[in-house]
Design brief:
The protein is mainly alpha-helical. Helix content is 47%, strand content 5%. The chain is built from 16 helices and 4 strands.
Amino acid sequence: MHHQWLLLAACFWVIFMFMVASKFITLTFKDPDGYGAKQESLILTAVTKVEEVHVPEEKHWPEEFQPTGKAFSGNLIHQPLVHMERLELLRNVCRDTALRDLSHTAVSKFVLDRIFVCDKHKILFCQTPKVGNTQWKKVLIVLNGAFSSIEEIPENIVHDHEKNGLPRLSSFSDSEIKKRLNLYFKFFIVRDPFERLISAFKDKFVHNPRFEPWYRHEIAPGIIRKYRKNRTETKGLQFEDFVRYLGDPNHRWLDVQFGDHIIHWVTYVELCAPCEITYSVIGHHETLEDDAPYILKAAGIDHLVSYPTIPPGITVYNRTKVERYFSGISKRDIRRLYARFEGDFKLFGYREPDFLLN
């Protein structure tokens, strides 16, 4: 009997050690950035009884990384409610007559050129530069069948619209455009408007990683000639010059000269006409880790493709950076800039910057 108990205890010990080892292996090899993978066990149906839903503890970012949009739960079980609130806010602001000039635009060829089409899965994606759109274009390229996986897509192909297999909505007839706008799943991504402008300035006038010389050699000199106060300075385009240009009520005369290059800093309203087109989902760059898998699930493609891995911290709003860029700029110029982008702030739940209130 004594030997039987010893044998039984040994069996339990072996089983226990096996469970511990299995758990260790799972934790060790689990991909910490695997948010884009298919999440079979997550409940993604609309929450109808809000009072019964347990809301997890709100994320607390360090002070310099405070999100400026609505603070929503990162738990995917609440995502349908999050996106319903975003769309409801959008509808309410669109109805505000005081903001009509800032929230409405015609569905012109300029807008239709920004919208990419995936007929196979009935998806429309409106491109809003400087919010991670390159990755979404890769997702659609794979879905359209031009490449079998995101990893196979050469970087130089993503933005080559002759080779990437992504048709624009403007390439269809009026009746085909209307049909797609009425029936397809439609989405786009936004981020804090001022942080987006900083990103555009750095990408096009400071680093210029894609080597687009016209930004430094044609657009920058045009802005400097018109908006630099001290004409004796010979340094390149400064953020102050850029802000003064963007906030000028008469900026359009330069926009015409710059052509479609302005898509990197024009408003979301001008790019995607959110009050005229009924979008299915509007993602936020600040919550992209949650929004990306939700969009894939809502579009019915989560089993076919995953959103590429997001480097840690890259989507978090950096308040310190924004305040640093605007610290040397006059309140007058900042207010004029905000006046132009106020529609974007209000439509998508971004609050007015603190340095405008002080």
